[in-house]
Amino acid sequence: EDTAIPVTQDGHRNILSNGTLVLRSVKAEDSGYYTCTATNTLGFDTIIVNLLVQ
Prior knowledge:
Blueprint: E1 13-15, E2 21-23, E3 32-40, E4 43-51
InterPro entries: Ig-like_dom, Ig-like_dom_sf, Ig-like_fold, Ig_I-set
Domain Ig-like: 1-40
Protein name: Ig-like domain-containing protein
């Protein structure tokens, strides 16, 4: 079973104030499933994307 790992913000990975995930100088090790969840008073929504870096 896979366990979610929060994104660590560093010089390589950053989350902008609008929620955009920025990956700089991507590598094959950055490949994987990324989950984004948005919540507000009406509920929540989640999307999972598979990033493949070759």
